Amino acid sequence: MKFSERLYEKVQPIWKKNHEHPFVQGMGNGSLDKEKFRYYMIQDYLYLIDYSKLFAIGTVKANDLKTMGKFAELLDSTLNTEMSLHRQYAKKFDISEEELENAEPAAMTLSYSHYMLHVGQNEGLAELVAALLPCMWSYAEIGKELSKIPGAAEHEFYGDWISMYADDEFQELAKWTIDLLDDLTEGKPEHELARIEDIFLNTTRFEFMFWDMAYNQEMWPADE
Ligand SMILES: Cc1ncc(C[n+]2csc(CCO)c2C)c(N)n1
């Protein structure tokens, strides 16, 4: 069994909860409150900034030119293409560039992105890839599922989001990352695999919590 197959099985109960989550369901059937999506876009912008740093760390930690090149490409595309698309998309929800630039991370955004950065900075490349993979893989699954709902990919507000993640290019990126993790974990002893599985499980849990945070528009409970 490939290591990624083991991971896939492990997180099925959480992925099922992701798909059933009212935020995800609401994007699929178009009923999601725009204020909730607006909040999500702002927190996701902050998330993407930290996430891009993982690609930079991946470039440093990889030992072959092909992998280094791919991480460098992802760093460039996230910072210089994806984030500008995000700023454009945010305008649909009346979010200005200033609001994005001045936004403060919520507790969950900070916990999730800093957990990934901690693993990325302090552990090996396989651990870093395990930390960043649930983001890509779970979004690829959600994009694919939601795009099957008639009309969902054409929805005025959520259609572009669904199309972006259902797109072949994005599906291939998730596949590249899965294959990379399978290569990196080949022949590793069980105690290392168990640690990598734990990291993957933790960021999978964070993905679910990010949906929940956005649905409830949570910031810092102590401030409320
Ligand atoms: C909370 C959260 N989780 C996952 C993604 C998806 N995502 C973010 S960066 C990236 C890789 C390509 O740049 C992908 C797939 C998101 N946007 N927000």
From TrEMBL:
Similarity section: Belongs to the TenA family.
Entries under Pfam families matching the protein: TENA_THI-4
Annotated protein name in UniProt: Aminopyrimidine aminohydrolase
Domain of life: Bacteria
Organism name: Thalassorhabdus alkalitolerans
Domain called Thiaminase-2/PQQC: residue spans: 9-216
GO molecular function: thiaminase activity
Catalysed reactions, as listed in the record: 4-amino-5-aminomethyl-2-methylpyrimidine + H2O = 4-amino-5-hydroxymethyl-2-methylpyrimidine + NH4(+); thiamine + H2O = 5-(2-hydroxyethyl)-4-methylthiazole + 4-amino-5-hydroxymethyl-2-methylpyrimidine + H(+)
Stated role: Catalyzes an amino-pyrimidine hydrolysis reaction at the C5' of the pyrimidine moiety of thiamine compounds, a reaction that is part of a thiamine salvage pathway. Thus, catalyzes the conversion of 4-amino-5-aminomethyl-2-methylpyrimidine to 4-amino-5-hydroxymethyl-2-methylpyrimidine (HMP).
Enzyme class, first EC level, given as a word: hydrolase
Name of encoding gene: tenA
EC nos: 3.5.99.2
Subunit annotation: Homotetramer.
UniProt xrefs under InterPro entries: Haem_Oase-like_multi-hlx (IPR016084), TenA_E (IPR026285), Thiaminase-2/PQQC (IPR004305), Thiaminase_II (IPR027574), Thiamine_Salvage_TenA (IPR050967)
UniProt pathway annotation: Cofactor biosynthesis; thiamine diphosphate biosynthesis
NCBIfam families on file: salvage_TenA
Alphabetic keyword roster: Hydrolase, Thiamine biosynthesis
